[in-house]
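**User:**
Make up any protein.

**Assistant:**
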Amino acid sequence: MSESMSSDVLWDRFSGCLAEYVDNYLLKTRGGGKFGIKPSYEVDYEISNPDSLFDDTSFDGYWVHKVARCRNINDLEPGLKELAIQFLPKFFTQFPEYRTEECLNVKSDGN
């Protein structure tokens, strides 16, 4: 598999799992919505200001699309980077083989 394809697979997986993470949080905190849907796993975390994810309602501005188009955690806008960093431990628990991937190596904002 080429490096580019490998990066695409990683980011598809990362953005999909991150979307599930947020969806589960919203299901838990909003009582499952109209149909009382339960999260697919136990929600034992908080997301600071989850409503800010929905500030931009355009197709290109939708937070899931912004993450999916990205290829490096350090290139995400600050709010999304914070969310992605919060999610990394859960992601690495599920996919430990990605721990050493450079694109998931968080750098301080000064670097």
